[in-house]
Amino acid sequence: MTTDVELSVGGRKIAGSRAGGSVAAAPLVVALHGGGYHRGYFDVPGHSLLDRGAATGFPVFSVDRPGYGGSDPLPGGATSFGGHAEALDAAIGALWTEHGEGRPGVVLFGHSIGSAIAVHVAARRPRWPLLGISIHGVGDRSPAHIVDAWHTLPAGGPVELPAEQRRALLYGPEGTVDADTVEAAKASVEAVPLAEMLEIVGGWPEEVARLAAAVTVPVQYTLAEHDGLWVVDESRVAAFAGYFEAAPWVDARLQAGAGHNLDHHRLSRAVHLRQLAFAAECATRVPAARG
Fold this sequence. Notes:
Elements: E1 3-9, E2 12-19, E3 28-32, H1 49-55, E4 60-63, H2 81-99, E5 106-111, H3 113-123, E6 130-136, H4 144-151, H5 163-170, H6 179-185, H7 194-201, H8 203-213, E7 219-226, H9 234-242, E8 250-259, H10 268-290
Parallel strand pairs: 3-4, 3-5, 5-6, 6-7, 7-8
Antiparallel strand pairs: 1-2, 2-4
């Protein structure tokens, strides 16, 4: 069963959904969506991370980033990955205070721009107990045609990609995803601020190495074979994983048989179970290392 969550951070609202939590030793999982989707990205029927967390005893929170869904925008309507990370750092701290008693800590899951923001959060070394980050749908180099396309978009308001473009860029070929799932995922589509699109192909590639070097928790990193937004090959996966030089360990893989929106593909169950297994390992190994 999914329930709504509402937090007040600096007088601004952060909205979310919660499911699961029957296993006391399980960490809190907080999922950060990418650009162009609200928190419902993680709750598409048949491919719901929240449902899979509930089935395995993990408390999973999917939150609307500032300006998306039910969450208030950042002050002045500005948007930046660093600004989102600051607001979400405070929001997750409030979640931890309310729901973390008796649990080992928090593991962040991120998709796409949400992954970049998860790295920003981890680099801040928050006061609440961050145990690890599991990220996918993000890289360090976009194809030239994507960079050019984003820079030629009209300045001003947010952008909503046409359905045909979303299908081509965000999903793998037929056989990797079901048409009815792509259709169902449209319920979580939301316009993305142009500033986010420009930062992910501009500022982010320039600062990812610096940010990742400041991350001191375990990292799970996945890049999909058919991701239309990033340059995809084994060398890029290895290079990205190598940025996390201070992490206790990094689990990195190139995922065959899927596209950018890994959570909606036919293998989403395998992806989610690997993420939850990673979260469980973080919860087990980090306290031992501290001891």
